[in-house]
Amino acid sequence: MKYGITIVLPIRNRAHCVVKTLNSIAKSRRQPEELLIVDNGSTDHSAAVCQEWAAANSGEGLHVQVLSEPQPGANRARNLGLAVCQTPYVCFFDSDDRFDEDALTDIHEALTAQPETDLLFLPVQQATAGGAERVRSYKESLSPAVHILNGMMSTQSMVFRTEWLRKIGGWNEGLTVWQDWELGVRVTLQQPRVQWLTNHAYHHVLLHAESITGANFTQTLTGTLNTMRQALKEVREAEGLTKLERHQALRALYFRARIMAGKLLREHNKEGATAYRQLSLECLPHAAKPLKMIGFWIEHYVAAGGRGAWRAALALCH
Questions:
Q1: pLDDT tens digits for 19-41?
Q2: In a domain, 216, yes or no
């Protein structure tokens, strides 16, 4: 039990697909010490489906609990699981993805080898509804600027020391989208003792119209702006950052806002693009004219369908 792991799985109206996710966890070569399924106010029969699955699959090394968090919000459900968790390590998963059967075996071996780990990172495979699959981009770096621009710290890629995650405040319950991105910002600002488990990509993350991230950026505009402003506040208030590190992080937020403005322009949402331009000025209110010109170029490159702008932006942050 020394390196025991709990999986927390929030669900909301996933009766039609959650069993596939649960079965993928049950097929793990090494079982988690505990699986906490948290029903987040479902209005379908998700809770009953999970209760039935738990009754059929608990035992033989897998302890399953189905909890209830009636207040809406995936982060509320995750934090309930974090509060109930009794193992030294905890990870979180989404109810419409597929768990990798080798992940827990490799995680256990890694934590046994480096028992002081606060955060274990593992890359994930990201698939579209059309079936194409790729490894989600990442860099083995705890630079806040890196995560701000490429969002590598996703829900499925992070395994936490339970007490460390509680210490930094768990999941922010005031956010509706990009919750893992914001948590990743806080993680990098706290500079945990990290271990990079990158021998291969794990899990299968599916993107579709019902994903919490939404079908497009216009649909989640208010939520993403709120999340980015929260991250801006955290970067400004973070203790322990050098002047250079804070400058790099603020530049990264500036460019992330201009990239998002480009995405909104591509969706023909001029008002949304204007809102993100305003946010970019909040990040760097005294940006020099050359930087503004680069931001303009990046925004319109993205608006025209260009890809990989974050890489160019990251080079300009360091």
A1: 999 999 999 999 999 999 999 99
A2: no
